[in-house]
Amino acid sequence: MTTTASPTATPTPFVDPARWPDVARVPDVPLRAAAAARLLRRAAARRGLRVELPGGRALRPAPPGAPVLRLHRPQDFLHRVGASGLIGFGESYQAGDWDSPDLVALLTALATAPETLVPTGARWLRRFYVQRPPDEELSTAANTRSNVRRHYDLSNDLFALFLDPTMTYSSALFPTGTARQPLPAHEPLPGHPPLATHEGLPAAQHRKIDRLLDLARVGPGTRLLEIGTGWGELALRAAARGAQVVSLTLSEQQLALARHRIAAAGQADRAEVRLCDYRAAEGRYDAVVSVEMIEAVGRPFWPDYFATLDRVLAPGGRVALQAITMPHDRMLASSRTYTWILKYIFPGGLVPSVRAIEETAARHTRLRLTRADTYGPHYAETLRLWRERFTERSPQVTALGFDEVFRRMWELYLAHSEAGFRTGYLDLHQLLLTRDEERP
User: Fold this and answer.
1) Which domains does the chain have, with CATH numbers?
2) Is the pLDDT of residue 8 over 50?
3) Phi and psi for 66 in degrees, rounded to 5?
4) Treating both helix axes as pointing N-terminal to C-terminal, what angle do 252-264 and 144-152 enclose, rounded to 10 degrees?
């Protein structure tokens, strides 16, 4: 793998300009590249990084064990970063301009208080390279299916390579050894997970699903709406409890496999999967569960999302959400910024804050946030397991028809996400919403 290249190696993945136009093109911005070089020196000094140039020479002295940024084509790297900031940083990795023997350690160092990397007096320069999300990726009813197709319809076989047998693509909950007592809203659950294992991942995914179903009080006869089917594991667990499940997805590949898995489990009479936008949901339900779907909704449509939850929820019903979150001030700062993740991984979305969820629900619906538990370290461990499996199975990824630029893109995406949870830049919450008529 190029991510473990020797200091003298220069990885040169073939970049198809038709498939990856912005990765194939190296911008020519000498003044911005010079500014990027100064920021690189500042980042190396402030984060204690070892920046290696071709031949293994270090840009500056670094402490033993320092995270390593290994530059294979320094000028290409600097021109990309100078032209488009963090988008250029990601595209430079896709192109093979740089590597690291421990990508997560490097990204964790960079993700720690990222606002301090740029001098205060130079932050006004952001407006010259920070892009706005394109209108065609805004998560309107017309655009959402295309956004979903770009990620979730890549290939069921691709996801099966790194997910566990439950085919669950959201954070697991690992044992912590801490008794789970009822907690007030916004109070975190104490205790971090131990080092997780691939063998324990299916049970940890079921623990997550069962806790959400318990929050929503799903049991025999419950009418349950799931928004965001995935590959059907939550619907299967709910149907096994005796619930009557309707699950909505916009991914045709997920739809086909989820229906197949439900039929194979003998639960087709209890669980139905529909190809349907959340805004078109019909019926009345005793419970609504949605796992890591709100991140794809987009800030302009949060009122529509919560209005849908309120509209379909029967009196006395409960809503259980699992959501990736970020601190409110960071969410506001990034809400109109086009990032590498939006461009290449999850178009049209925005990670919300717990405050934004609470305020949007209160402003536009009768729903109120009544419980919020946090599990960020569990997502870091889940992502570590996915990343290790994805990297180990690189030859199988190639055999499915995905090129090296794609593989590097996904390695960076998984490592970037893991680093976000390890630093606290990102968090994970399970949230309960109820109406005033029904409180825990």
Assistant:
1) 2-130 (no CATH), 136-435 (3.40.50.150)
2) no
3) -65, 145
4) 60
